[in-house]
Specification:
The protein is an alpha/beta fold and 229 residues long. It is 34% helix and 15% strand.
Length: 229
């Protein structure tokens, strides 16, 4: 820390970093400051540094070089999914805390490597599943746990994306992203109860699960991509 503020580095200065991470971090200017920006496209990192960086913020194209800076406390990993694992593991080995964008990794093997590195490091680690921290989600969880709704026998959640099929950046590139929406959202819910070893809040008389995977190809002519979801 410097002057009571966490020194933050961001690896990956593309869409999610510009839309979410940079604004969120600068809104906490009394607690942290962004002192390092890394992207394989140097100009992109430089523009981000000029707009969001602290005085003297550094620009990198190699995250390994960035991690040599001992003043950095926290690393935000905002790269394509396949790069989450090597960067996160390297950050822990360099003694940094890590905030990694969702999904955690492209494979279970990579996720395990990240977990092993985290446990060995003794540092903080979080994935960008922000909705669980929403006020409404926290309130609903608390009400259920307090038993104010009695025995819950049915629960339903529904979400609709109204912003069209994403065709920008690396979203259409399965080799870099992979997994689609389930990787970002649904699969963590399927496994969460097992991982956390918690009793379910819903107590159905009968339980059944219906899963449906649609292999749908969207042709985005303007971008020249074929998107497999």
């Amino acid at each position: 820390m410097k002057n009571g503020k966490l020194q933050v580095a961001v690896v990956g200065c593309g869409g999610i970093a510009n839309q979410k991470h940079f604004p969120a971090l600068t809104n906490q200017a009394d607690k942290c400051e962004i002192t390092a920006f890394c992207d394989i496209i140097e100009e992109r990192a430089r523009k981000a540094a000029e707009k969001y960086g602290a005085e003297g913020a550094k620009v990198y194209t190699d995250y390994q070089e960035l991690l040599k800076d001992e003043s950095i406390d926290v690393v935000h990993v905002c790269t394509p999914n396949v790069a989450h694992c090597p960067i996160t593991v390297a950050a822990f080995e360099a003694g940094k805390h890590v905030m990694c964008e969702k999904p955690m990794a492209a494979t279970t093997e990579d996720a395990q490597k990240m977990m092993d590195a985290w446990k060995k490091s003794g540092k903080k680690f979080t994935i960008g599943y922000q909705n669980r921290f929403r006020t409404d989600a926290q309130a609903l969880k608390r009400i259920c746990e307090e038993g104010k709704l009695g025995d819950i026998y049915f629960a339903k959640a529904h979400a609709v994306r109204r912003r069209a099929v994403p065709t920008w950046g690396v979203f259409p590139d399965k080799s870099k992203q992979g997994g689609g929406s389930p990787a970002d959202k649904e699969c963590k819910q399927w496994l969460e109860a097992i991982i956390e070893d918690k009793e379910p809040l819903v107590k159905p008389e009968q339980a059944f699960v219906v899963t449906q995977i649609l292999d749908t190809i969207y042709k985005a002519a303007a971008e020249g991509h074929e998107i497999a979801l």
